[in-house]
Specification:
Blueprint: E1 2-11, E2 14-24, E3 28-33, H1 40-47, E4 55-60, E5 63-64, H2 65-68, H3 70-73, E6 76-79, H4 91-101, H5 108-117, H6 133-141, H7 143-146, E7 151-155, H8 163-178, E8 182-186, E9 197-202
Parallel strand pairs: 3-8, 3-9, 6-7, 7-8
Antiparallel strand pairs: 1-2, 1-4, 4-5
């Protein structure tokens, strides 16, 4: 279970949010919503341990995430709103390297299978710099197909995706949730996802 208790975020002399509470169980989806500048990305960075809340505590299975260190990070995959791909590397190299940096070694066969599933079959050996923004996003999202983590924290995963790719992501997220996974995500696009529980976390 992922829980946030009385969370507050301050940037400079401005308070973005305060008194935020939530609880996310296996199979659950939490959508973080709010206008630009409300602290959505800041919230996700707190959840994945990249920054600390000004007040409050985040716990995983009852323990503060700061005390869990590697055990928590081994159970979590974070993807920012930027694709994070390297232009001069090939599509398959990008997936293999990004997975290795996240602590998961995959072979070229596994990478190619994931990329094909993401609609990138036949482009595996192309340098990423020749791809469209939507295709680059698919390369980044392919990591979700090979990671073995329970908790996915996703910042605008649908950005730059066309209608078919959004539907594909919907099925990937639903499968993860059906298997007892958990998802925290921000999105400006509407997506219809079936989950055991869906929570809307609204930031002012």
């Amino acid at each position: 279970m992922l829980q946030g208790s009385n969370l507050a975020c301050v940037r400079g002399d401005r308070r973005l949010f305060k008194d935020i509470n939530f609880s996310l169980e296996p199979g659950g989806l939490m959508q973080v919503r709010g206008p630009n500048g409300s602290g959505k990305t800041s919230m996700l960075r707190m959840l994945c341990g990249l920054s600390d809340p000004a007040l409050g505590e985040i716990t995983w299975c009852g323990a503060a995430i700061r005390s869990l260190s590697g055990d928590y990070y081994a159970a979590m995959t974070y993807m920012g709103h930027l694709s994070g791909t390297k232009d001069d590397l090939t599509v398959v190299e990008n997936l293999c390297i990004s997975s290795a940096l996240a602590g998961l070694e995959i072979n070229e066969t596994q990478a190619c299978k994931a990329l094909e599933h993401m609609g990138l079959g036949g482009r595996e050996t192309l340098p990423v710099k020749v791809l469209s923004q939507g295709q680059r996003r698919r390369v980044a999202l392919a990591r979700l197909l090979v990671c073995q983590t329970k908790l996915w924290i996703l910042d605008e995963p649908l950005a730059a995706l066309d209608v078919s790719a959004v539907k594909l992501m919907q099925s990937i997220l639903e499968q993860h949730l059906e298997q007892g996974g958990m998802v925290v995500m921000t999105t400006h696009q509407e997506i219809d996802i079936t989950a055991a529980s869906i929570t809307q976390l609204q930031l002012a």
